[in-house]
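Quick entry, no commentary yet.
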Amino acid sequence: MLRTLILIIASISFIIMIGGATYEHTSVVPIWASAPPASLSMFQGNYPLSAWNFWIPIHPINVILLLTSLIVNWGTARRKFILMTIGGYFLVLVVTFIYFVPELMSIIQSSYSTVIDPELTRRAKNWELFSLVRLGVIMVLAVSLLFGLAKSNDPKLA
C-alpha cells in the first residue's frame, strides 16, 4: 500500500509539472517570444511574472518523490520504469540548467525597446521550439512512470 501511495504521489507531482509547462507554452511563451524586446514587458517593471515561484520548488519535490518511490519499489517490477523516469528527468534537468535557464534569463533581461530585435526573436523562437521538445520528452517520461504504477508492487512477482 505504501509503495503504491508514494508512487501515486510522485506521479501526480510529475504530471502537475507537465500542467505548468503546458500552461506556459499555451499562454505565456507565445506572447513573450512574439516580438522581443517589447513583448518581454511581462517580466519587467514593478509587477513581473514570477514563474520561478513554481519551477524552483517543483523540481526538488519531484526528485525527492521519485527517489523515494524508487527506494520503496526497488524489489518490484516497477523499478525499471521509475529508473527510466529518473534517468530521463535527470538529463532534462541538466539540459535545463545548462541551456534553458541561462538562455531564458539572457532573453528576458534584455532592455525594453519598442523596436523588434530579429536576433532576439530568433533566439526566443528557438528557445520555444526546444522547450516544446523538452516538454514532449517529459510527457514520455510521465507515461513511463504511469506504466510503472500499473505493474505489481509485490517483490515476489518482480
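second:
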Amino acid sequence: MKKLLFLFIALTTLANISYASFPITKNSSSDISNSISFQIAEEEEEDGVKWWLLIPLVIALGFGSYFLIKTWWRAWRDRVRWVRILTKIILILGGLIVLLSIISSLSGGLVYNMQ
C-alpha cells in the first residue's frame, strides 16, 4: 500500500513539474486550437488590491495588539523585572533607529551611490 501511495505521489509530482516546464504564452497556437473555435474568457486585470480582504486582517491585528498592550501594561504595573528590562531595551533600540534614520535622511543616505 505504501509503495502504491508513493508511486501515485511521484507520478502526480512528475506530471505537475513537466506541465510547469513548458509555459504557454498568450500568442501560442496549435492545429487543434485553429480547427476548433472556442472563446477564452479573459481575466479582468486589476491593478489595485481588493481592500475588502484586508478588513479581517486589520481587525485581527487591532484586537491582538490591544490585548498585547494590555498584558504588557499589567506586567509593567506589577513590576515584573524582565518586562521592565525588555521595555527599556526596545525603547533604546527604537530611539537609535530613529536617530540613525534622521541622520541618514539629512546626510543624503548611508549607502554610497555610484551614479
